[in-house]
Design brief:
This protein is of the alpha/beta class and 431 residues long. The protein contains 11 helices and 20 strands. The structure holds guanosine-5'-diphosphate, 6-O-phosphoryl inosine monophosphate and magnesium ion (MG).
């Protein structure tokens, strides 16, 4: 297998970064293909913690090429900061290791201002976005007024377009959103520096990937967010503004259709969500607080406490199907140690009618009641386990049931945050 995608099956933060970091060892190139710095992927290697937002999680291995694909929206200042941090703390470099698509769109300060002003005006109805300008940047892309990295080459024309956009957005910010305008101030100078520092990274990434595959090299596609945050398949409107499912690899990563060999779905052994929106299995009791503390469930991007709930097999099965994922990596099983009994949502109840499908049409996800199956828990610590057979019997039964209900083959089990705290049953890049 030469092309593998790692995709979140819940509402993000499933542990994609850790799995991508693990698989990157067997790949030549790692590609991000959608989203922006609203993603935050945490890697723990030899006790050191790295949070990647824009640079793919292949960054920690010397010699692996990291690609930021055309489908991403990239805050150039955030990218420069991330590159600088990686150079300082992880020997990241030289510049050829990071390839940034000419066609990726830029997130500008006015996108952030609009995102935040809209959320503030929505009050209780807010989506709970990261406030990083992701939605407004994708809006401009689709409206065909966005700024792409390729435009940095001819700076005079870039500057004219930037000023024009800024003037228009400032009118919208002040007149409609009743917010402060974004000053042009140092923005032009800042963009000159962006140009100087990022031009060497710019690349026809789709052409590059075609060459790499022609040479028989291995490419790993790193999904961001999760299927339930997908703009089409997620819990709209409480979603992000990009396509987060496996098919986005083709459009956003520039992979020719049909060239994806395998999709590995990632799920937590329970469920979390940051921001607003329906969450049928949310635990609102003290048990939820306990799980949040045990699992350190605080957003890596915004430090917001994550909402916590039981594993939802109805959503997981749908996500596996939408993504064409056959195998599943289940992370954070260790966090469930000591929780007894454990529960899995096997169906939804809506006004007395039971369904094992995600509600569609007039049936709303925030109105359904989860139907649970209860299983005995386990009390042993799991961090040192490296074989499935070493896990307590009840933990194995839990895994079997989760996979059976999700229609998935178990590929990996996370038993701790560190790179090596994992049980690998099936590696999509066989050695
Ligand atoms: P991502 O956005 O999907 O990459 O996930 P995040 O990095 O935002 O959040 C997952 C968190 O869980 C990170 O802090 C990881 O270090 C941590 N993590 C990943 N796998 C495991 C696991 O198996 N056990 C434990 N305890 N922590 C894990
Ligand atoms: P990773 O890649 C968790 C959520 C936000 C909000 C909604 C829209 O780390 O799994 P946005 O700023 O994207 O317009 O916010 O989407 N969200 C995430 N939640 N993990 C993520 O990424 C997320 N990316 C976006 O909290 O509810
Ligand atoms: Mg995350």
């Amino acid at each position: 297998m030469n092309t593998v995608a790692v995709i979140g099956t819940q509402w993000g933060d499933e542990g994609k970064g850790k799995i991508v970091d693990l698989l990157a060892r067997h790949a030549d190139v790692v590609v991000r293909f959608q989203g922006g710095n609203n993603a935050a992927h945490t890697l723990v290697v030899d006790g050191a913690k790295f949070i990647l937002r824009l640079v793919p999680a292949g960054a920690l291995y010397p010699g692996k090429v990291c690609v930021i694909g055309a489908g991403m929206v990239v805050d150039p200042i955030a990218l420069l900061e991330e590159i600088a941090e990686l150079k300082r703390n992880a020997n990241f470099g030289p510049d050829g290791r990071l390839k940034l698509s000419y066609d990726a769109h830029m997130v500008m300060p006015y996108h952030r201002a609009i995102d935040r002003a809209r959320e503030a005006r929505l009050g209780k109805a807010a989506i709970g976005t990261t406030g990083f300008g992701i939605g407004p940047a994708y809006e401009d892309k689709v409206a065909r007024c966005g700024l792409r990295f390729s435009e940095l080459a001819g700076f005079a024309a870039f500057e004219r377009k930037l000023r024009r956009n800024l003037a228009e957005k400032n009118r919208y910010l002040t007149a409609v959103l009743k917010a402060k305008p974004v000053p042009v101030g140092g923005l032009i100078e800042q963009m000159r520096e962006v140009r100087r520092k990022l031009l060497p990274h710019l690349c026809d990434t789709a052409g590059y990937l075609a060459d790499v595959l022609e040479r028989g090299q291995r490419v790993l596609f790193e999904g961001a967010h999760g299927t339930m945050l997908d703009i089409d398949h997620g819990t709209y409107p409480f979603v992000t503004s990009s396509s987060c499912v496996a098919s986005a690899v083709f459009a956003g990563g520039g992979l020719p259709g049909g060239r994806l060999d395998a999709v590995l779905g990632i799920a937590k052994a329970y469920t979390t969500r940051v921001g607003a929106g329906p969450f049928p299995t949310e635990i609102k009791t003290r048990l939820g607080d306990r799980l949040r503390e045990k699992g350190a469930e605080y957003g890596s991007a915004t430090r917001r406490p994550r909402r916590v709930g039981w594993f939802d097999a109805v959503l997981a099965r749908r996500a596996m199907r939408v993504n064409g994922a056959a195998t599943l990596a289940l992370t954070k099983l260790d966090v469930l140690t000591g929780i007894d009994p454990v529960r899995i949502c096997v169906a939804y109840d809506f006004r007395g009618a039971r369904s094992t499908e995600m509600p569609q049409g007039p049936v709303r996800l925030d109105r359904v009641k989860p139907v649970y199956e209860e299983m005995p828990g386990w009390h042993e610590t799991l961090g040192d386990k490296r074989e499935l057979g070493e896990l307590p019997r009840n933990a194995r039964r839990y895994l079997e049931r989760v996979c059976e209900l999700s229609r998935a083959r178990l590929a990996m089990v996370g038993v701790g945050a560190s790179r090596d705290e994992i049980i690998v049953l099936e590696n999509p890049f066989p050695s």
